[in-house]
Every structure is written in C-alpha cells, then in structure tokens.
Amino acid sequence: MAHLRWFGHAAVELGLSGRRVVIDPLIKENPLSPVKLSYFSGVDVIGVTHDHYDHLGDAVEIMKHNDKSVLFATYDLEEYLVSEHKLDWNRVIPANVGGYVEYSGLRLALTKAVHSSKHSDPTGIVVNGDDITVYHAGDTGLFEDMRLIGEIFRPDYVLLPIGGRFTMDPKQAVMAVEMLRPRKGAIPIHFNTWDMIKVDPQDFAKGVKEKGYTPIILQPGQSIEL
C-alpha cells in the first residue's frame, strides 16, 4: 500500500510501486526519530538531497548494511561517496537536475534547490510510483522556479522545510505551496528538531488552508496512506 512516513527533521520514507524509498535519513543524531537504523533493513532506494550532515545523515551506513539498496543523488555527490566512503559504483543511480530516471518501477528526478553544500549543488527529489508524485524539496529557500517544478511534475504531495534561518519559514513555505499547487497535500519538514529551527507548524497549516490547499501536519513516526 502506498504510504509516506516522517521520522522528524527531513527524513522521510515512501512506499510506492512495491519499493521502499528513504530520503535524507538522519536517524542516529535525530532527537525526534522514533526508529533505529535497523528499521531500514531491506530499503530499496536511498535519496540524498545534499551533503550537509543532517541530510546525508546515515545514508552510507544504511547502504553498507543493505546489499541491494541503491543511492540516488547528484553525480558529483555520488562520486564523492564512492571515492571517500567506498560505496560500490554499481549501486548508485547517476543523475543530475533534469527529467525522470526510471528505476525498478519508480520514476525519480532531481530538482533545483536554493541552499549550499560542499560536494555538489543542493537538490530536491521527486518520486513517482503508483500514479502518485511526491516532491521533497530538501533544504531550500523560496525561489520562483518552484512554479516550473509544479508545472512539470504536478506533485500530489509536497514536503517543504519551514524552520527558517537555514530554509524557508512558514510564510515563505505557504508561498511555495501556491507555486507548486499540490493536488492532495502539503507537509512541513525540517522544523523543531533543534531550537534554532523552532516554529509553530500551525502557522503553515493556517496559511495553506487560506490559499485553498490541504495541509498535513505529521508527528515524528506518523505515516499516512497516499
């Protein structure tokens, strides 16, 4: 059954087309995570939006404990992880910002994000399966090209950072929802993990409702059927 589960911060699991996809799996240093790394046994795809520690997280360790999982990130970040962390090049999906890449019943894409990173440009990730499209924005500020992301990928659900300081705040994230036009729901992420990104997600929910879209506020560990 298609589902989405949030583990706190930006860590998200998607179940689509019979595959398990985890994006930005910060678990061990995530004070909000209700699960341990053993939960990710058998995961199929690990998506990483950029190389900051709170997004790269435990991706390498999860890869090394799952022989069949593959990594989806920008080519340059993949190249760095292969050379520095000894990942198997045959277990990465080479990609960059552009169109869909087909993998094992899924369609995956990388999008622009406005942020920083060391080994590659930051990105968002789009995952399509079971006729459902989910856009995880990664870490990003607000940018006008979100209109194009909405037009090209027509997301059903969007996951948007709202913590401010390092990313959009709730008000800016509401503006992003207007540009992306999600058909089923807008989900806030990357907030309240630490005091520096403490905000009230209800401010986001109220703004999203006022614009005619559906906010979905999750608690860490909570999952929804897609």
Automatic annotation (TrEMBL):
Q: Which GO terms describe its molecular function?
A: hydrolase activity
Q: Which Pfam families match?
A: Lactamase_B_2 (PF12706)
Q: Family, per the entry? A: Belongs to the UPF0173 family.
The record's section on NCBIfam families has: PRK00685.1
Q: Does the keyword Hydrolase apply?
A: yes
Keywords in alphabetical order, please.
Answer: Hydrolase
* Limits of the Metallo-beta-lactamase domain: 8-190
Protein name per Swiss-Prot or TrEMBL = UPF0173 metal-dependent hydrolase MetMK1DRAFT_00030130
- Organism placement in taxonomy: Archaea, Thermoproteota, Thermoprotei, Sulfolobales, Sulfolobaceae
| Organism the protein comes from | Metallosphaera yellowstonensis MK1
